[in-house]
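Encode chain A's predicted structure.
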Amino acid sequence: MEKRSPVEEKIVSTALAMFNEAGIEYVGMREIAAALGMRVGNLTYYFPTKDDLVNRLTLDLAEANSKAIIPLDSITLERFFEMLEQVFRNHIRYRCLMLSFVHIIERNPIVAKRYSKIQSERNDSWAKNIAVLKQAKYITADAQEIAFLVSTIALIARFWISEAAVSFRKEAPEEQMRHYLKMVARIFLPYATKKGKLTLEGLI
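Encoded structure for chain A:
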């Protein structure tokens, strides 16, 4: 990504903290400017609208997830779940985006178009890694079952924070994350070989 100024980085980090605290829909550019001690005009020099600021945050999250989800020629089941855990941690850091996911997609066509492409690439990476897990005899799954596992991972990763905010709101984010990682592990269990079950049982 292009080099960003310290002021721009300060705006982004402040906006992220405020969005995470109160929700994207409930924080305006004036509130962000006030928190930064700057005029709205100075803020809009860097980000003309709040949609532009949200778009920047989605780019940052996408970059973090791209670093986490890497198709590998050799992978263990432990490494696979480490990747997934990092994605979940990224989503905790950018939880405002996950909580407002549908709103953002409906409101911002630029984000929606980019998300469709990114999601397809992510699913391909997950599918490739699951295929390698099959080759390494951690699981036994045909193409249709691999597609099911990929779609399940995508669904849980996309919406677990929203579900946790309703069902496990009194628990810490770390505890919430563990619950949903275990859920994915249990979904893998019916496809696991003896070798795979030993790993999954440690995760569950």
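The first helix runs from residue 6 to 22.
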